[in-house]
Design a protein that fits this description.
This protein is mostly beta strands and 631 residues long. The chain has three domains: 10-180, Fimbrillin-like (Immunoglobulin-like); 185-319, Immunoglobulin-like, CATH 2.60.40; 448-630, no CATH class. Strands 9, 13, 14, 15, 16, 17, 18, 19, 20 and 21 form a ten-stranded mixed β-sheet that branches. It has a ten-stranded parallel β-sheet with strand order 22-23-26-29-31-33-36-39-42-45, with no helix packed on it. It holds the Pfam family Mfa_like_1.
Length: 631
Amino acid sequence: MVVPDEQHGIFINIKITDSTMKLFKLFTLMAAGTMITACNNEIENLSRNADNRVMSLQTAGKAYTRFNDVTNTWENTDKIGVYMYGAGTGSTDILNGAENVLFTTQGGESPVNFTSETGIQIAGENAKFTAYYPQNGDITGGIYKVALGNQAEGYVAHDLMWAMNDNVSSEDAKSLSMTFKHQLAKLAIEITSNSGETVQSVSIQGISISADFNIATGEFSNEAKGYITPCKTADNKYSALVLPTNPATALSMIITTDAAEDNTYEYTFNSGTISELKAGYIYTIKIGLGESVLGSVDQIEGGNSPYEPGGDVNGNAEAVTPEIPGYMVVEAPADNAEALAGCLNGKQGPIALKFVAGNTYKADMITVPADITDLLLIGKEGQAKVTMKGLSVPERTLNKLTFQDLEIEGTDANTAICAAELKEDAELTVKGCYIHGVKAVYGRGKALAQKHSTDFSRLSSFTIDDSRIYNVECVFDYGVVLAVTLNNSTLYNLSQIAFFSSKSNDTNDIKQCEPIKVTNCTLVDLKKNLVQTAGGYGYLTNYENNISILAGDAHIAYGVKGANNSAYIFVIQNNIAATGSGIKIADFTNNGAIDDTKSRAEIFPNEDAGDGGKNFTPADGITIGDPRWKK
C-alpha cells in the first residue's frame, strides 16, 4: 500500500500483475513534503529529487526476462511510452504535457515495476490514458511510425502493443489499470519440399509494410505497400509481423531454394474461411513446394498473452521463372507523378523498377530509400520513356545502380540523374538507353568535388553500352571511378568534359580510371575532353573503332599517363576523326591510328535527318563507330 500526499505533484508507477490477462497496473504516487510510507514491504526503495518528488521505485519479487511473444515476460530496461489526453475516444489534446513519457523497468524482479524520471501530474479533470510498447523517443505528433519491411534480424522489436483507459477521474487515476494488446498480426510460415530443397529466401508481397499509428486513437493510416523480408526461425520456417489486412487475398510470397534448377516458387494466399488478418492473431501458413498441403484454418487472439499457434492455412507454391532474376520487381505507376516519386518507399534489398513501353511516366525526384542496396530501372516491352528530374538517393547506400532499356528525358538541365555518391566500389551501368536533357548521369559536381577532394566514394566501374547520351553537359561529373567502359554507344553535343574522374593529389595511392576502354563509339560535338583525370593518372587501355568530332583544342584523354609521365595506352587502332577535330591523348603521337583526313560531311553524308534530329550513319565503306547507326 502507498500513502500519497494529494497536495503535491504526481508520479506514476506502472506495475505489471501476474493475472491471466497480464493487466498492466498504473499506480500514482503523490510526492509529499512528509515521509511517504509503504505497507506490506511492497516498496523496497524510494528515491526523491530536491523538491521531494518521487522519481523511482523498485519492487521485491522473483526474477523475470524480456517481454516477447513466446514467454510474455519482461527484462530490465524495457520501455513504454505513456500519454494523458482529454477524455473521449477521439481526443488528441495532451494534458499537463504528458506526451510520450518514458517508463522503464528498474529491476529483475516480479511484480514488475516501470518507473519514470519525470512522472505525470494527474489532471484536475477526467482524462484518457494511452500507452504503447516499444517506446520510441523520436515520436512527434503522437504518431508511431510502423516499418515492417525488414524483419530478417528478428520480429520481436516490431511487436507494437497499445493500451487505453478512457474517462478516468482524478481519483480513479491513482489506481489505474490498462490492458495492452497486440496491434499486429503474426504469420508463421512452414515450408516443405518432397525433393528436400532448402529454402534460401522468402519475400512476403501484396501487403502493406508501413503505416502511421495514432497513439491517441489506436488507428492506422497512410499505409504503403511493399514486401516483407521475414525472420528465419529454423530451416524452412519463417515468421513475420504484418499490419491488420482486410481483405488479405492479395497476399503472396516469392520463395527461392538451393535447387540447381527451378528454384523460384510463388505462393498465393489460400485463406479458406479466413479473408482478413486480424491484430493479435497468429496465422500458420503451411506451404508445399510444387505440391498440395492439406490443413485447416483457425485463429487465436493474442491479446496480452503470447501469440499462439492457431491452426493452419493450406497452400502450395508453384515453380516460376522470375521476371528479373535476383530482383524484387516493382511496377512503376503510370500517369501519376506523385505515386511514381514515392513508389519505392518501404522497399529494401535489390529492386527492379519496371517501366512498360507505351505508358506515360513523369515525376520530379524519385525517392530511393536507404534500405535499397541494388536498383535497376528497366524498360519492358521495348524502350520505355521516363521524364524526371532525377533520383533522390541517400549518400553511399547503393551498391549497384543500373539504367536499362529506357529513354530518360530530364526536366532540369542543371541536375544529374544521380547526384549522390554510391557506396565504395559500387557499380554504375547504362545499357540500351537514350538520355538527354539532364546535367549528367552521375557525379558530385565541381564544387563538392573540390570541397571534399579527399573524402569520396570510388566506384568500381562505370559502363555505358548500346546507349545514346546527348544534349547534356557531361556524363560523369567529378566523381571517382576505377574502371570506365564506353562501348557501342553515341555521345552527342556535350558542353563539358564527358568523363571527369577527380580527386585530390593527396590521394595518389588510390587508383582511378584503370582501365579506360572506348570501343565502337560515335563521339560528335564534344566541346571539351572526352576523358580527364585529376589527382592521379588513368590508363587508356583501349581506343578502337571509334568516330570522333571533338573541339579542336579538346583531348580524347587528358591526364592519362603512366608512372613515367608518358602516355599509357595498350591498344589504339582503326579510328576516324573529322579534319580539325581534337585527337590529343596526353603525349601520344598519332601515327595513323586515328585517320583525320576526312571532313565531317564525308563521314556523315546524311547527318541532318530533316526532322530536327541527327543521323550519324557513316558513309559507305566506314564500318566503325556505334554499330546501331548501320541497322
